[in-house]
């Protein structure tokens, strides 16, 4: 169960359907190897729990959307990000006058 959740979080399939009426489960060793290739240590159940806890913690760092106006200070929500965090900025094409993207 945990390995499947961890795989899903990283976009790794745990089964496939070679035909409409057949579903094949991917062996756990294969899923673990693919996760390892992605830099995820899932070799033991304890590793899986640790990775799931870390992913859950990261998912709660910020709300899905934070509004920031150009030239204004960053919101305090961004201050709690761990060093090295990546933030995606998507300017809105309909920004009001005086607030360039």
Write a brief structural summary.
The chain is of the alpha+beta class and 101 residues long. It has helices spanning 2-9, 28-37, 45-59, and strands at 15-19, 22-25. GO terms for molecular function: transferase activity.
Q: How would you name the oligomeric state of the polypeptide chains in this document?
A: single chain
Distance between the termini: 43 Å
> Could you say which overall geometry the principal axes of the C-alpha atoms support?
elongated
Order of helices and strands: HEEHH
* Helical fraction: 25-40%
Q: What percent of residues are in strands?
A: 5-15%
Structure classification: alpha+beta
Poorly predicted segments: none
Number of helical segments?
3
What Rg, in angstroms, do the CA atoms define?
20 Å
Which sequence of strands runs across the widest sheet?
A: 1-2
Mean pLDDT: 84
* Beta-strand segment tally: 2
How does the major sheet shape up?
2 strands, antiparallel
Describe the structure.
The chain is α+β, with helices and mostly antiparallel strands. It has a domain at 2-61. The protein has helices spanning 2-9, 28-37, 45-59, and strands at 15-19, 22-25. Strands 1-2 form a two-stranded antiparallel ribbon. Helix 1 packs across helix 3 (45-59). It starts with a helix and ends in a 42-residue tail after the last helix. This is 4-alpha-glucanotransferase. One of its GO terms (molecular function) is transferase activity.
């Amino acid at each position: 169960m945990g390995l499947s959740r961890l795989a899903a979080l990283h976009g790794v399939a745990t089964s496939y359907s070679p035909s409409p009426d057949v579903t094949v489960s991917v062996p756990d060793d294969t899923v673990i190897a693919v996760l390892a290739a992605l830099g995820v240590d899932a070799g033991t159940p304890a590793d899986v729990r640790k990775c799931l806890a870390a992913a859950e913690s990261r998912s709660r760092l910020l709300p899905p959307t934070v509004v920031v106006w150009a030239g204004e200070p960053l919101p305090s929500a961004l201050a709690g990000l761990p060093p090295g965090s990546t933030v995606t900025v998507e300017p809105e094409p309909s920004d009001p006058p005086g607030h360039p993207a």
